[in-house]
């Protein structure tokens, strides 16, 4: 955690403290507390110090693990298990013990806690800017190394996926198609190679490299045309197969993110053009990445490549359902999606921002193509954290 | 989803509708919407109907997947990407379109949305009872089958873990200890067998059986005495090793949960007594499970076994840090921990409740023992969903 940056961003609060009530699932909480509590607990930033309040069951582990200045437990406020009212009484007592009569909470903080504190005379305001996001967006060297490590696992998993796809037989070509297996379906050890099978290979590889995972996308053909479709069923020759992997290090909890698009056999002329265009859009966007450039400008660089080729984007048609139908990228860290955004309205880039750059084209009649690299903004431009070839033909 | 039960529990709302603003990470949202949206979206229950409001990117998938009565997208309310104010304007327009001027939100709903709706004249109250939890607690047959399937994967993973532990050599006994490896350390293929290695085996097995996972506990010796310690480093002979696995089906999103405690070599007399006591506490608690019994009564049945043997519990000493220092169990479903609780104040059991029963004893000087089964409450008592032997000596 960048403590100076934290102090800077929380200095001008219009309240006595900044309050989080969340479990480790919440990235703000994990960042500010440094504690992997599985159940919601309180973290208070006040007067330049970070204070934790946890249950007795978590107390020992929180003392060892948390980066906070103080760690207290419920029993310190004479709380035994009781209902919600007693619990909020304890929270209010904890705040007042720290000299806090007013707090700011992030927009996704729990309304139950906010309203109950208000009933107890504590002033609660919503921090509409969610300012911890801006603090988290700029990574320390240690955080960048954590992301770099997760990306190494990601590359191993992508390699495993590509090998499985490249090594597949094609029904009706390498081996005869039969009544059960359509011509063109990819086969692995005689069975149809499915999205699920490739996903399993990816996820097992990630586990072997110390990463957990939420979801993985292995989507071919028309499925690849929906950027959020995770993919299912048999993969086929001559279609574009999008593989998008975003693993999380189990040790550090930091994420990486990379996408490649593969094809076995002969892609259509349109898919070939799309692949070339997308590679050029990636290069154009990367060229635009430097401190002081905005996320909007990087997004524009990718859009221009597509627009000049006549492909629709959200800039030329906000209603379009085909073409380049998402933003160019996003910050990544403890959350897979965090600040800054590479999109219309995207903020200015700073050294230490870790971002994805991931242009793509989509149309259910054609398929989908996306190529995504992971980079860190540096004083001089950017460093690409991705070490994986860009090639359409799986090998 | 049990629609009748939902209607019953939401009928007496003191508001026009019940509002969720969350992603699929929130179990209430996943339950009410039936949609696995990765970003927060709105679900409104009003006049006996469930309405979804999602982004354009999610619209196609939401229409196919969601169990809601209606699915709308942001563009239906003329919203293009804008700031937080425009977004809440859209939310208010969506609510008013459904004839809703007042909503109830669960306690962990986002305060940012609640306050912004209030600013727009929508009355927002907190549903302190979090009533969807009570709806979710009683499972349909389909939900029970989903949990049963996750438990099958769990049993395969436990088997893999037990085999790895049982098959280990003991340094200084089966093979010579040397300068690098302490006497008593378990060895697998010549390397120290660590908690991390066993966890990896468990997690890979779960993936092969279609389950994802959050955390797994493999904790030996003094680590096992902290019920929330996930365990790390080499495992040893003659110590109790707690293996607690709680996988989630990737297809259904329902969880299972099971704990076994294993030993290689000769456990101390105290550990042997603890194991026998814990097995008896489990039996006593299971005997108490039936419709109409309270979670408090089931917890009491386990506590009594321990208390009669002179072991401390939270009933005899609320401050104790050794003995039986957690509740006897919890409901399980889309969340690993949900209603009902088997603890002081625990509510009445109903047919369809799926619960864990998991007594244990802990002391850093001795180690930890926990045994956990997963059961469903039935008209006649309970059905045990767990099919795994209870034995201390790993085999």
UniProtKB/TrEMBL annotation, chains A, B:
Q: What is the native source organism of this protein? A: Halorubrum distributum JCM 9100
> Which protein, by its recorded name, is this?
Peptidase M24
UniProt keywords, alphabetically:
Hydrolase, Metal-binding
InterPro entries the record matches: Creatin/AminoP/Spt16_N, Creatinase/aminopeptidase-like, Creatinase_N, Pept_M24, Peptidase_M24B, Peptidase_M24B_aminopep-P_CS
> Which Gene Ontology molecular-function terms are recorded?
hydrolase activity; metal ion binding
Q: Describe the location of the Creatinase N-terminal domain by residue ranges.
A: 4-138
UniProt family annotation: Belongs to the peptidase M24B family.
- Pfam family membership, one: Creatinase_N
Top-rank taxon of the source lineage equals Archaea
Coiled-coil intervals, chain numbering: none
Q: Which Gene3D superfamilies match?
A: Creatinase/methionine aminopeptidase superfamily, Creatinase/prolidase N-terminal domain
Keyword tRNA-binding recorded: no
Q: Where is the Peptidase M24 domain?
A: 146-379
